[in-house]
């Protein structure tokens, strides 16, 4: 999994309760994105909403997550990790429960925005907290963290499908209840003195200024267009598939499992054997081809499911490798570089779902997949044309385990 796994000493499961509390909360936090996927058609039907309105559930969540990322390092460097974690978790509990109680789609969209704010605060500090509190070396902490992250990405759609089979409100209440348990566990087990070494306070403007760096600008622009492809596949596909909540839950469980496996296991193997930019040059065209294939087989649900799962395999590699590039492209503080990159990247994710629904309505059901393939091709052109600015990312030696885990987090946080 991680290059740092040799640091473990058989003690990966013998962790303080604080580590298990944060790891549990990580699983729930990463369930958040895929959770609503299986219930999109049910929400559209129950609340008399159009597909475009329903897709705004992703837009509000991602837009606020992205914008909040610009301020998370500023906040956590001032109030410490524990308070930042608890504020994030508290917001998720409140807004997930409020979404479940909503009587119209506009309210759900608004409450998903609050959920996105909570998620940004939580995920930006969870890794540092686990590493700081773990026993058995950094390696064992990172393996545990990556396992929690992968589990959350895979289980999210499955839980969404199972609870959504009962009612579209189920996944929202389920998340609120689980996050409340995580909140109580962190209050009880994570001791404040862990925050004794506060990071150097960062300026609020730091992530915006970071985008002036050519390498970071190239990567952020590429990620903007790549993320359009990502979220068309994730957020638009439930509509042409035509499955019920359970069928969609199992489909996107397969997608999440594929993404988790390649982001944690396959991406590090590839970057150990070839330059990172070459991995991008191979994976981006593969994703574009997969999206074109999805458009061609849209009338065949079985074939479309295969395209979605294959897409997950490619997305896992791209997420991790792109974010590893961000970590190594500049001399900036990693949290600042990651915040700047994530903010731009999430804008692509925010635009894509409602745009896809509108394209399907105005042109044809397969049009969103072809547009997404074109967007991924633009990302490839940006990476190829910007190769000089990205020279540094290919010169770096094998990834330290911590950097790799940061890359997987930032990559999969969307």
TrEMBL record:
Write out the entry's keywords from A to Z: Membrane, Transmembrane, Transmembrane helix
Quote the InterPro entries the UniProt record gives: MFS, MFS_dom, MFS_trans_sf, Tet-R_TetA/multi-R_MdtG-like, YfmO-like
What's the source species' lineage? Answer: Bacteria, Bacillati, Actinomycetota, Actinomycetes, Micrococcales
The molecule here is called MFS transporter
Topology relative to the lipid bilayer, per the entry, is: Multi-pass membrane protein
List residues of the Major facilitator superfamily (MFS) profile domain: 18-391
Q: Where in the cell is it found?
A: Cell membrane
Q: Which SUPFAM superfamilies match?
A: MFS general substrate transporter
TM spans, by residue? Answer: 18-36, 56-77, 84-101, 113-135, 142-166, 172-190, 215-239, 245-267, 279-297, 303-322, 343-363, 369-386
């Amino acid at each position: 999994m991680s290059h740092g796994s040799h640091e473990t000493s058989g003690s990966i499961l013998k962790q303080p309760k604080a580590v298990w509390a944060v790891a549990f909360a990580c699983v729930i936090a990463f369930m958040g994105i895929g959770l609503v996927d299986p219930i999109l058609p049910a929400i559209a039907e129950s609340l008399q909403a159009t597909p475009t309105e329903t897709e705004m559930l992703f837009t509000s969540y991602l837009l606020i997550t992205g914008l909040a990322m610009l301020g998370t390092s500023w906040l956590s460097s001032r109030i410490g990790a524990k308070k930042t974690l608890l504020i994030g978790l508290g917001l998720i509990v409140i807004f997930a429960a409020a979404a479940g109680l909503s009587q119209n789609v506009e309210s759900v969209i608004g409450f998903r925005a609050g959920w996105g704010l909570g998620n940004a605060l939580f995920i930006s500090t969870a890794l540092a907290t686990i590493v700081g509190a773990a026993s058995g070396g950094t390696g064992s902490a990172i393996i545990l963290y990556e396992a929690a992250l992968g589990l959350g990405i895979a289980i999210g759609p499955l839980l969404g499908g199972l609870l959504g089979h009962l009612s579209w409100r189920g996944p929202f209440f389920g998340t609120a209840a689980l996050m409340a348990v995580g909140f109580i566990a962190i209050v009880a087990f994570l001791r404040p003195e862990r925050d004794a070494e506060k990071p150097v306070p960062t300026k609020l403007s730091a992530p915006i200024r970071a985008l002036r760096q050519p390498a970071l600008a190239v990567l952020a622009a590429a990620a903007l267009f790549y993320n359009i492809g990502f979220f068309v596949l994730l957020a638009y596909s439930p509509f042409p598939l035509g499955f019920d909540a359970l069928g969609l839950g199992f489909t996107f469980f397969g997608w999440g499992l594929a993404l988790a496996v390649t982001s944690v296991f396959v991406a590090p193997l590839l970057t150990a054997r070839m330059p990172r930019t070459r991995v991008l040059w191979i994976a981006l065209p593969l994703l574009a081809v997969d999206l074109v294939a999805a458009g061609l087989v849209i009338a065949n649900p079985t074939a479309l499911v295969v395209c979605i799962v294959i897409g997950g395999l490619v997305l896992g590699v791209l997420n991790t490798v792109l974010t590893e590039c961000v970590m190594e492209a500049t001399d900036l503080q990693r949290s600042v570089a990651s915040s700047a990159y994530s903010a731009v990247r999430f804008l692509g994710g925010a635009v894509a779902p409602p745009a896809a629904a509108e394209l399907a309505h105005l042109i044809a059901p397969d049009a969103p997949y072809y547009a997404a393939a074109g967007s991924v091709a633009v990302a490839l052109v940006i990476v190829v044309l910007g190769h000089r600015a990205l020279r540094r990312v290919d010169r770096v030696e094998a990834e330290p385990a911590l950097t790799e885990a940061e890359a997987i987090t930032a990559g999969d946080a969307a």
